[in-house]
Amino acid sequence: MTPPIGSGDAAAGAAAGRWSDLERPPLDEAALRRALVLDGGLWSSLDVVDSTGSTNSDLASRADELPEGAVLVAEEQTSGRGRLDRSWVAPARSGLFVSVLLRPTVPVERWGWLPLLTGVAAAKGLSKAAGADLALKWPNDLLVKVGGEERKTGGILAERAGRDAVVVGLGINVTLRENELPVPAAGSLLLANAVSTDRDTLLRSVLRSLEQWYGDWRAADGDPEASGLRAAYEADCATLGHRVRAELPGERMLEGDAVRLDADGRLVVETEGGGTEAVGAGDIVHVRAQG
After folding, report:
1. How many angstroms separate the CA atoms of 155 and 178, rounded?
2. Model-level pTM?
3. What stretch of H or E contains 227?
4. What is d(CA 264, CA 251) in angstroms, rounded to the nearest whole number?
5. How many whole angstroms separate alpha carbon 48 and alpha carbon 126?
6. Which of 78, 23, 22 is CA-nearest to residue 190?
7. What are the counts of helices (DSSP H) followed by strands (DSSP E) for the chain?
């Protein structure tokens, strides 16, 4: 948490540190709690920390003592993780780095839909609040268009925590500038010409959207059809209809056309011979059409 404000030069130094980039003000923890932690709502607590290694790791380590709906937000992550143990690093206060603790009361075989559900909720929430078009790259990436090119602006990581909990982490590049991009394929809401990059507004919209989608999915016992989740994901998925290369476990490669999701949320790829294979794990690359 933010250290207590002192007096004199120490206080001035602390204030200067928090506001060293005037275009990136800190999140308003008290206002976020008032807006999101409501009686009868999903979100049971909300904490904002200045810096941490990984919000997912922090929540997972306390999963046994926290109720469902605990939210942890970091102004900066020093050891943020994505799928396949990839790192996620960004300047302080340049994005949203948030994890939530969920205890799904649905059949465990349907828990695999949680990263996809989070993607749908985040894309809907950000599109509404930021005024930018977002698309989904299976299984856990959020894309924006920068100069007509699809770029990754966000990622999702869901991890089991104990017997009955899942920690879902979401990282979104909000005000990352071109010279701050970790790789050329990265993007941000700012670079996608979003009409708003106010992180308080964006976070409220994302968490409200996630609460709604999670509630509908849980009420449908995790059924992706009855909850509307599969249809919503497929409608926003940039991977479907694309030529893809799947880099699978065991150094196996599969190339073909991504045609649909199956009932378990796996990506169905149609190969050259007309057969299909459902991909549940691995890295997906969108293959550019040959001009």
Report:
1. 18
2. 0.90
3. none
4. 23
5. 20
6. 23
7. 6, 14
Per-residue pLDDT of the chain (291 residues; tens, 9 = 90+): 333 223 333 333 433 444 456 789 999 999 999 999 999 999 999 999 999 999 999 999 999 999 999 999 999 999 755 554 555 578 999 999 999 999 999 999 999 999 999 999 999 999 999 999 999 999 999 999 999 999 999 999 999 998 899 999 999 999 999 999 999 999 999 999 999 999 999 999 999 999 999 999 999 999 999 999 999 999 999 999 999 999 988 888 999 999 999 999 999 999 988 899 999 988 899 997 644
- Closest by CA to 55, choosing from 28, 33, 82, 73, is 73
Tell me the backbone φ, ψ of residue 160, rounded to 5 degrees: -65, 140
Q: Which residues contact 80 (CB under 8 A, 6 or more apart)?
A: 54, 55, 87, 88, 89, 90, 97, 169, 171
User: Coil, helix or strand for 11?
Assistant: helix
Looking only at the bridges linking them, the beta strands covering 165-173 and 95-102 are antiparallel
Closest CA to 156 of 214, 105, 228, 88: 88
The H or E element spanning position 114 is helix 114-130
Task: Give the span between the Cα atoms of 289 and 278, in whole angstroms.
Answer: 22
CB atoms within 10 A of CB 193: 13
